[in-house]
Amino acid sequence: MKPFFLAVLALFTLAALGQTALAKGPDLETEHMRVYSVQGEFETYREGLEMAITNRGIVVNNVAHIAAMLQRTAADVGGEAIYLEGQAYEFCSATVSRRMMEADVHNIVFCPYIVAVYVTEEEPDTVYVSYRRPVPVGSEASQESLRAVEDLLEDIVHETLDAF
């Protein structure tokens, strides 16, 4: 009986630890973005984000190396370092995107979806994971489909943060 009890206790403990990022909610939330943070290494959460996307059978269309671009062009345009690391993952879900565009053909502007993962110069031990929120517009069907997009993005971010 003791091994079973210990296994159940371990599962509850892991579940509670895994919900830490989820339970605290976003650090910043506006009509247009939602930003979460976690203490850790950039590469760990970058890999976690990629896995959270591809685990759903979604193909990453592009990875924008934003921090590298800013570092590369700083001498030409001026400015101080902003990010130690920073990438944005662009992707669409065939299922969710189709429903969104069937609800309103003009919803094409919401695709691709983008989730960013980054570390700032000011907070080198904090990894941020954020996404652009699709504004629920149009008919009720359109609004519902756009809420489904946000649910997908939110699930991906939570999986990213809670995986480690």
What does this structure look like?
With 164 residues, the protein is α+β, with helices and mostly antiparallel strands. The chain contains six helices and six strands; from the N terminus they run ααββαβαβαββα. A six-stranded antiparallel beta sheet has the order 1-2-6-5-4-3. β5 (113-120) and β6 form a beta hairpin. α3 (42-54) packs across α6 and α5 (94-103) packs antiparallel against α6 (140-162). The longest helix has 23 residues, at 140-162. It is globular, with a radius of gyration of 18 Å. Mean pLDDT is 89; it is low at 3-23.
Q: Which SSEs are present, and which pair or pack?
A:
Elements lengths: L1 H17 L1 H5 L3 E2 L3 E7 L2 H13 L5 E5 L1 H12 L5 E9 L2 H10 L9 E8 L5 E7 L7 H23 L2
Antiparallel strand pairs: 1-2, 2-6, 3-4, 4-5, 5-6
Helix pairs in contact: 3-6, 5-6
Give a brief description.
The protein has 164 residues and is an alpha+beta fold. 49% of the residues lie in helices and 23% in strands.
List keywords for this structure.
single chain; 164 residues; alpha+beta
Shape field: globular
Note the quaternary state here. Answer: single chain
Query: Which consecutive residue ranges, at least 5 long each, have pLDDT under 50?
Result: 3-23
What's the count of strands? 6
Largest β sheet strand count, sense and barrel closure = 6 strands, antiparallel
Sheet with most strands: strand arrangement:
1-2-6-5-4-3
